[in-house]
Specification:
The complex is a heterodimer of chains A (about 325) and B (about 500). Chain A has 13 helices and two strands, in the order H-H-H-H-H-H-H-H-H-H-H-E-E-H-H. Chain A has about 325 residues and is mainly alpha-helical. Chain A has a single domain, classed as Orthogonal Bundle (ABC transporter involved in vitamin B12 uptake, BtuC). Chain A has a two-stranded antiparallel ribbon. In chain A, strand 1 and strand 2 form a beta hairpin. In chain A, helix 1 packs across helix 10. Chain B is an alpha/beta fold and about 500 residues long. Chain B contains 17 helices and 22 strands. In chain B, a hairpin with a 2-residue loop joins strand 14 and strand 15. In chain B, helix 14 runs parallel beside helix 15. The chains are: A mainly alpha (about 325), B alpha/beta (about 500). Chains A and B meet through helix 7 and helix 8 of A and helix 2 and helix 3 of B.
């Protein structure tokens, strides 16, 4: 039975590790479907992690921290929109600026406010989110199979984890079953068609960016007020880029993007699990090699298996009315 | 008296220094097909974009059914019963027909009841006007003709009473044009009003009740179609009388200066596209090559101009071999030897459309002493040259700093032509010189080619427009399936004779 619990804990950590990727990928989906490249997921995630940790610390309430992080991220998305939608600047450059600015700003502000470069004070239990044990989790643990699924896989996560996986079908529903979704997809494919249908292209893109800001805030807050109890320097650690890769791998579709996120989460969970494990005949695999698995996988998937990535046609192009 | 369905009063619109519309007054009556004709850049599309709410006029008023309306966005226009079919279709290619049509007018936040209603509604419209469109097909799977119908259906679904069509036939085959005209007539019979923007005289004569002529941003006349004819309209459009048929003297033929022997050329996929072609061009002569698109003309031109490798055979310029299967001169070396080329695809090969006009005006000749010294461009000289040449070739607007893509097709072609002709080449290769070019510019371009011929140049003209080949050439070769299938002296030859050769029948 021991391998069963091994599998259960592997799945459990896959769900945890994938959570910020799922939020970020869904955030990116809204921006990119509207035709705005979002390379800035990384910087926004970092900003959200910082703001929510600081907010929780000052106000003693993680929800308030999350709320402030949402404001910060929506603000950054609007900044991105102002530069690249209103003023038709280069979208990638605008994102890179946000990313670099956030690395520096979070470190500097932490130093100024708390005297430690890039570190915020540790949050107490009532200042952060805690793991939720689902009802009866302990009592039905011994039921075969079902017990393991319920108690060891589904139970015991932070609230973010549940929200993340519930949000994917919601995103699917919004994008494909509502008029907002139709307009969102249209504006990323052919903004002229949207304009001549009497819909404001710019306001559509700003709306998409606002949703993008809200979603990415959850990813950041999860890192600093749930799985960790403080903010530390560059704690997003490339998850924004990884989520973007998952989005592309998932062809800008919520379902496949989710699968890609889970795949990346799984390889990460696996590499943690494999560290120090002695395999028969091979012996211990060097940690560095194992840690490289998720990245190697990313490169292989993106290079070879995506096939023709069908990006939204108008992505990266500022909308200019034809003369 | 019933008020007109659409009335424009004193509309003005400028883009920067360019006044696109000047004091436009226009009355359009219900149930008519109203033509608006003018050359490219005359301001027709701008005017209709104002009516459709895409642009706002700087001044002037718009009345619909006698009531003053403010059209601040396409939405306002759509609500006021105006629909527009743009020259470039406003469709999302990976959406279905249905999705494209309801976009912006879904009528509900979450798709459900109204979607079903929309489908029923659309099927009714399709039946009424015999549009025959499957609502569930993807746009990318539809032919150009069907996409246009989707645009018409979209406008009708949104309640259009006035339907504006901007150059609707430019992308259609003759059969599709017939179908479109049938639909437009049945729309008119149902009481809809149609505004047809075009620069094709024949369409105006064929379809419209009333026609307004625009020139350089102004309306220069309104007339009932039955009271006018093609020649009169052309004259109004251009502002002077236009020769719809070219008047030219006989060629004073000199020696052979360009000779092609047994030329065979393969395309990028390795398919032989030009097969054992022999031809000679004398100085002072225009040799026309007629043929249906895709019979090797493109590859022939590319090989002759040094862009494509020759597979076998040879090309001689003034008795000196310039290309065979072993070696060939590149376009730059050919230019130095006096061979100029006006390529078929002007936007892809003839111009860098993102560059400014003055850059394109010297491109390929930029390292000449008059434009640069030791690799550094002399801006003042180039600008002076550009201004002079733009005036000489009547390129409009005459602003060397304007980005080339902002010029109309005809003016882009004049930029290329002026660049190539300015060097007085001995041999000129011209592909599709007037494709997508308005009649005023066509006349101008044709006249320039004749002038070049009279100065002693040897000109090879490749065109899929049979009329063009017939009116310009002194001698005509017909190409079919990569080979020359006939040669005719252009005297008493008819288009029927050439048509049979082109079809490979004879």
């Amino acid at each position: 039975m021991e391998y069963l619990s091994d599998i259960a804990s592997l799945i459990n950590s896959t769900l945890r590790i994938s959570t910020p990727l799922v939020f970020a990928a869904m955030a990116g989906l809204f921006a990119e479907r509207s035709g705005v490249i979002d390379f800035g997921l990384e910087g926004k995630m970092l900003a959200a992690a910082f703001v929510s940790a600081v907010g929780s610390y000052f106000f003693g309430n993680p929800w308030l921290g999350l709320f402030l992080a949402i404001i910060a991220c929506v603000g950054l998305s609007m900044l991105h929109g102002f530069a690249s939608v209103t003023h038709k600047g280069d979208q990638v450059v605008s994102c890179v600026a946000i990313n670099i600015l956030m690395i520096g700003l979070t470190t500097a502000l932490a130093a100024a406010w708390f005297g430690q470069a890039g570190l915020t004070p540790t949050l107490g239990n009532d200042e952060r989110f805690l793991e939720i044990t689902l009802p009866f989790a302990n009592s039905i643990r011994d039921v075969p199979i079902l017990g393991i699924i319920y108690s060891d896989i589904l139970s015991g996560h932070y609230i973010f984890v549940y929200i993340a996986y519930l949000i994917v079908p919601v995103v699917f529903w919004i994008v494909f079953k509502t008029s907002f979704g139709l307009r969102l997809r249209a504006v990323g494919e052919n903004p002229s068609a949207v304009d001549t249908a009497g819909i404001n292209v710019f306001s559509m893109r700003y709306k998409a960016l606002a949703i993008n800001g809200i979603l990415i805030a959850f990813a950041g807050a999860y890192l600093s007020t749930a799985v960790n109890a403080n903010f530390f320097r560059e704690m997003s650690a490339g998850r924004g880029y990884l989520a973007l890769a998952a989005l592309i791998f998932g062809k800008w579709h919520p379902k496949t993007a989710l699968i890609a996120c889970l795949l990346f989460g799984f390889t990460d969970a696996l590499q943690i699990r494999l560290q120090g494990v002695e395999l028969p005949t091979i012996g211990t695999i060097p940690v560095q090699l194992i840690q490289a698995i998720p990245y190697v996988l990313t490169v292989i998937l993106l290079a070879g298996f995506v096939g023709k990535a069908m990006a939204p046609k108008a992505i990266g192009q500022p909308y200019i009315k034809e003369r | 008296m019933v008020s007109p369905i659409l009335e424009l009063k004193d509309i003005n619109k400028s883009f920067g220094h360019v006044q696109a519309n000047k004091n436009i007054n226009l009355i359009i009556n219900k149930g008519t097909i109203h033509g608006i004709i003018g050359e490219n850049g005359a301001g027709k599309s701008t005017l209709m974009s104002i009516v459709y709410g895409l642009y706002q006029a700087d001044s002037g008023t718009i009345n619909i059914n006698g009531k003053n309306v403010k059209l601040k966005s396409p939405r306002d226009s759509i609500i006021n019963g105006i629909g527009m079919v743009h020259q470039h279709f406003m469709l999302v290619e990976n959406f279905t027909v249905l999705e494209n049509i309801i976009l912006g007018f879904e009528g509900e936040l979450v798709f459900g009841k109204n979607l079903e209603k929309a489908k029923k509604n659309l099927r009714n419209i399709c039946d009424t006007y015999k549009l025959n469109i499957d609502l569930n097909s993807k746009i990318s799977d539809l032919s150009v003709g069907f996409r246009q119908r989707v645009e018409i259906l979209k406008s009708l679904y949104r309640g259009a009473e006035i339907l504006i069509l901007d150059e609707p036939t430019g992308v259609l085959t003759p059969q599709e044009v017939d179908e479109l005209f049938k639909i437009l007539r049945s729309l008119r019979d149902e009481g809809k009003t149609i505004v047809l923007i075009t620069h094709k005289l024949i369409e105006i004569m064929d379809l419209t009740t009333v026609v307004s002529v625009m020139r350089q941003g102004e309306i220069v006349g309104h007339t009932k179609t039955e009271n006018t004819n093609k020649e009169k309209l052309a004259e109004m459009m251009v502002g002077r009388s236009v020769l719809l048929r070219l008047d030219k003297s006989f060629a004073k033929r000199g020696d052979v200066i360009f000779k092609v022997k047994n030329l065979t050329v393969k395309d990028d996929l390795g398919v032989t596209r030009v097969k054992n072609v022999d031809l000679e061009i004398h100085s002072g002569e225009i040799l026309g090559i007629a043929g249906v698109t895709g019979n090797g003309q493109t590859e022939l031109l590319e090989a002759l101009s040094g862009i494509r490798k020759v597979d076998s055979g040879e090309i001689l310029l003034e008795k000196i071999k310039i290309s065979d299967s072993e070696k060939f001169l590149d376009p730059r070396q050919l230019k130095e030897k006096g061979l100029a080329h006006v390529p078929e695809d002007r936007q892809r090969m003839g111009l860098v459309t993102d560059f400014k006009a003055y850059e394109n005006l010297i491109f390929g000749y930029h390292d000449q002493k008059s434009f640069s010294s030791s690799s550094i461009l002399n801006h003042n000289d180039i600008l002076a040259h550009s201004k002079k040449i733009m005036k000489e070739y009547d390129v409009r607007p005459q602003s060397p700093h304007l980005i080339t893509s902002n010029f109309s097709g005809g003016n882009q072609q004049k930029i290329i032509l002026s660049r190539e002709l300015n060097e007085n080449p001995k041999v000129l290769l011209v592909g599709q010189p007037t494709r997508g070019v308005d009649i005023g510019a066509i006349e101008f371009i044709h006249q320039r080619l004749i002038d070049m011929r009279d100065k002693g140049a040897a000109i090879l003209l490749v065109s899929v427009e049979l009329d063009e080949v017939l009116s310009l050439s002194d001698r005509i070769l017909v190409m079919f399936d990569g080979g020359i299938v006939g040669e005719k002296i252009n005297k008493n030859v008819t288009d029927r004779e050439l048509g049979l050769l082109m079809a490979g029948v004879v």
